[in-house]
Amino acid sequence: MKTIVLGGGVIGVATAFYLRQQGCEVTLIEREPDVALATSFGNAGVIAPGYVTPWAAPGMPAKILKYLFKPASPLIFRPTFDPAQWRWIARWLRECDLERFRVNKQRMQRIAYYSRECLHEFRSHHPFDYGRSQGYLQLFRSEYDAELAQPALAVLRDAGIAYREVSAAQCVDIEPGLRWARVTPLSGIHLPDDEAGDCARFTRELRAICERNGVRFRFDTRVTSLDVQGGAVRGVRVQSESGGEQGGANVGANAGGRSGETVPADSVVVALGVDSAALLAPLGVKVPLYPVKGYSATLPVIDDEKAPRAALMDESLKTAITRFGNNLRVAGTAELGNRQATLREQALQTLMKVLGDWFPHAAAPRSAHFWVGRRPMTPDGAPLLGPSGIDNVWLNLGHGSTGWAMSMGSARVVADLVTQRKPEIDLDGLTLARYGK
Ligand SMILES: Cc1cc2nc3c(=O)[nH]c(=O)nc-3n(C[C@H](O)[C@H](O)[C@H](O)COP(=O)(O)OP(=O)(O)OC[C@H]3O[C@@H](n4cnc5c(N)ncnc54)[C@H](O)[C@@H]3O)c2cc1C
């Protein structure tokens, strides 16, 4: 079966891997010159299935209001006239109720735990280094933030997930580099089974494995639309980003300008991250995706003893600090209302403040390499996997703030559906059907 995967982020590449493993002839199309150059590039790298949490949570609207007026804030909101923004916010607010939160969190955890299983199984066959570390420590600066984490803790308890509520001193035992912190945590939560790793590095290695297994990658190629006839997909229309002629079937269109081409396909998986909605909308497939920008800083470690060993989360400022081998990554901020991938000084300052508060001597701030990415967020936090409503067009998108943690499982499930196998987990609440489609 000729299958085309659209998008070379962690989600698309993982999907290509499993589709090939299941016998498909796979081509992946990506507009950039390599994989993992968009949202999968500079994320925090945390794989914490016990922690995956919808951002729509009880108390969040109040917390957001509180932060809107603070200089060091994990949230930046620019109201716009974009109706899509307001529709998304209205849906998000509806999901903040306790019962919805529990349901959404359980759905996200189902796919995240399965994903970790898939990752571990994959790793046992393909051991390679991607800056992996073990354990995840959440730090609370105030009673208020510790209180806000209570519903999430209840879900962990109910699900029997290993976690430990720890004192400030115990936080230092877990992460001795905190001895040099400029602030003292009120308390923390330690999740020993969670882990972290460099998502982009992993995706590049996975690309190499896919290529060795026979997956074809077409870079510098923009997908412009899907060729759908009689309710079923026939192919993908693409355009060369470099303007050069593309090889392959049915070359035509736009003589003298950028060459257009339709690449024939029996099945198509849409994994274009935040850009998925624009491709699907003209076909009447409405996916409630909104780009929520986030930022990161990557810095070389200069003092190992004073640096973190694994991944931490400053719960109060919603900023993660992760160790990837000789580097540190600080990542966070949710910015709504600006679709452009431009760096915002306020967000970068918050990142550097968090690093300076917890690990002031671990890295030199001037060595920071800053990055901005756009999270493909659904209002309820869970991704959209499986049928799109158009025959043989499949979705693997909307992974929001936890796409790396959900990547291998989501890819496996979608590959199972494409090849007409029964997925190993229940997909209830993880498909477009939950939005009434
Ligand atoms: C600051 C920040 C921190 C994060 N931290 C974590 C974390 O700790 N743990 C975690 O699990 N997740 C985290 N995430 C989320 C995670 O990075 C995303 O969920 C994940 O990368 C989404 O992957 P994707 O493959 O869907 O999207 P992308 O990586 O964006 O891939 C989509 C690809 O499609 C391509 N594309 C788009 N349109 C077209 C087109 N028309 N034609 C051809 N190609 C196209 C793009 O170039 C891109 O390569 C974080 C995100 C941010 C921003």
Tell me what the structure shows.
About 30% of the residues lie in helices and about 25% in strands. The protein is α/β, with parallel strands linked by helices. It folds into two domains: about 1-40 and about 200-285 and about 380-435, 3-Layer(bba) Sandwich (FAD/NAD(P)-binding domain); about 55-85 and about 130-195 and about 290-375, D-Amino Acid Oxidase, subunit A, domain 2 (D-Amino Acid Oxidase, Chain A, domain 2, 2-Layer Sandwich). The strands form three sheets. Strands 3, 4, 5, 6, 7, 14, 15, 16, 17 and 18 form a ten-stranded mixed sheet that branches. It has a six-stranded mixed sheet with strand order 8-2-1-13-20-19, with helices on one face. A four-stranded antiparallel sheet has the order 9-10-12-11, with no helix packed on it. Helix 4 (about 100-125) crosses helix 11. The longest helix is centred in the first third of the chain and has 28 residues, at about 100-125. It is globular and about 65 Å long. The two termini are about 25 Å apart. The model is unreliable at about 245-255 (pLDDT under 50). Bound molecules: flavin-adenine dinucleotide (FAD). Flavin-adenine dinucleotide binds near residues 43, 271, 272 and 402.
